[in-house]
Structures are given as C-alpha cells and as structure tokens.
Amino acid sequence: MGDRNFLQYLIVTLKGMAMGAADVVPGVSGGTIAFISGIYEELITSINQIGPAVLKTLPKQGIVATWKEVNGNFLLSLFLGIAISVITLARLISWLLINEPVLLWSFFFGLVVASVIFVARAIVKWRPAVFAILLAGAAIAYFITQLPPVENTSSLPYLFLSGALAICAMILPGISGAFILVLLGSYKTVLDAVHERNVITLATVFVGAIFGLLSFARLLKWMFQHYKDITLALLTGFIIGSLNKIWPWKIVIESRVFDGKSIPVLEENVSPFAYSGEPQLLWAILLAIAGFSLIFMLEKLAAKK
User: Fold this and answer.
1) CA 18, CA 22: separation in Å to the nearest integer?
2) Which phi and psi (to 5°) does residue 125 adopt?
3) How far apart are CA 11 and CA 18, in angstroms?
4) Segments making up each domain of the chain, as ranges
5) Which of 63, 90, 135, 211 has the fewest CB atoms within 10 Å, measured from its CB?
6) pTM of the entire structure?
C-alpha cells in the first residue's frame, strides 16, 4: 500500500473494470483478475482495515486520517472501476454469452489457464502438504460447479447467508459470486427485489454481503500472513477446479428463466467435435491464446513499472 499519483489510481480503476467484466460472466471470478493484476493482497488488507478500529480513529483524528487508514483512495478507485464495468459492459457480455458463447468462453478459458500458472508461480516452497491443499481446492471448486441449483427461496435469514456466501465467492479466485446465488436459489429473488425496489430483501442481502466480506477478509489476511504457500495452493486449486465451468463447448441440461432471460444452471462439457452448434475451432483456439498471452503481457507491463 502507499500513496499513488493520479495515473496509478487510473490504472487501479482499469483493473477494477477488468474485475467487473469478469464478475458479469457467471463462472468467472473478479478475485482471479485481482490476483493476476497484483492487487489481491492489498484489496484483502484494505477491506480488513474497515472495522471497529475505524470508529475510534474517526472522532480522534478526523475524516482524512480515517480515509488514509482504510486505504480509501485505492478502494474508491477500484470499486469505481467495477461499477463502470458492470454498468457499461453487462449488456455487451450478456449479448456475447447468448450469441457467441464458444468464443467468449474460449477467451476466458485461456485467461484462467494462464492465471493458474501465474498464481502457482508465487508459491515459494512446494511440499506434500501444499500439493494436497492444491488438489483439495481443485476438488472443492469442481464439486461446486457440478452442484444442482436449489429451488428459489425468499426467507430473510437464508438471503442474509446467500449474500455472505456470494461475496466470499466473489473475492475468491476461481469461484463466481453470481453462480453461487444461482446455486443457492437466491438469484431470482435478488433480481426481482432490484426491479420491485424491495428494500427489506435488498438490505438483508447487502448486510449479509458486508458481514461476509469483512469476516472473510480477516480470515484471508490471517492465512496470507501465517500460511502463504498453503493459501496460494488453495487458491490455485480453486482456479483449476473452476476450469470445468468455463470449458467453451457444452450442452445445456437444465436452464432457468430469470428476468425473461434463460440462464443455464446445469451443463455438460463435450468435445468440440461432438458440439451440436458451430464449434468455431480455429477462432476459439486463437482467442484462448489471446487470453493466455494477455496475462503475461500484463505481468511484463507491471514488472516494467
């Protein structure tokens, strides 16, 4: 952490936009993008600073000192980028998901494969325990992507829990928060609440999300401080396990209609040669290579800076 100039904060906003674009796609996590772009630990630490200590700093030292303590400029720049992306790119990405799913998923597949290498390289010492945790993380993420969704539910305690779990998934590389809401059967309830301006439902989910974010950030920060290699191995495993969800060629077994749109909730991966639609193999490979290369180009740019 530390002071940045305007250009550096602009770069943080661009990273936020990349996170927002990933979060719009059900199956891709903004946490993965945060990790790739080198801001993951700072994000966790900054969120961790928001707590009871802030309430003590505010009356004693004022707003400026409190803002600095929580790394406010960084969080504002990042969340501004996420908001811009969700508002501007949501329509485009939704269109691509319906009209060019193979090409969109191919790009993200290449991106996520590269991020596996990127995160795994940060592990300093490979030990049997580290390997075991990596395999466990991959198995957990794979299991989550295979779960059948539960029926839609509107109980307030359940919505509080849904908000907490979805936000935890959103900051975990490899697991998508939107996908968790679909699995828990809360996606439609939340979507309806947005349209109907149901303040009680939205406030319950929001409070659950804040609770999940603050408590989970503390756990992650503690894990990074005490068991960095094991934490990195677990996150790498989560990303590997999520590759099942973003394989480009799949057939839909079950879908649900949300807000007039059909969203696949249960799919089966197939070979490009067994795919019922146009496999677009050459373009899919080229876009996967582009996604893969983009990660290492970003890494080189970051290293130069």
Assistant:
1) 6
2) -125, 115
3) 11
4) 6-304
5) 63
6) 0.75
- CB–CB of 278/94 below 8 Å? no
Cα→Cα distances 153→7, 58, 184, 185, 215, Å: 45, 40, 8, 6, 25
- Residue 47 corresponds to which amino acid? I
- The encoded tokens of residue 151 equal 């029926």
Buried b (16+ CB within 10 A) or exposed e, 42-79: bbbbbbbbbeeeeeebeeeeeeeebbebbbbbbbebbe
Token pair, residue 98, equals 């319906």
Dist. CA 278–CA 20, nearest whole Å: 29
For residue 104, give Cα distances in angstroms to 100, 109, 123, 170.
6, 9, 30, 20
Spatial contact of 250 and 184, defined as CB atoms under 8 Å apart:
no
Tens digit of each residue's pLDDT (9 = 90 or more) over 219-259:
888 888 899 899 889 988 988 888 888 888 988 777 766 65
Question: Which residues, other chains included, contact 92 with Cβ-Cβ below 8 Å and sequence gap of 6+?
Answer: none
Q: How much of the chain is helix, strand and coil, in % rounded to 5?
A: 75, 5, 20
| Assigned token pair, 188 | 């439609």
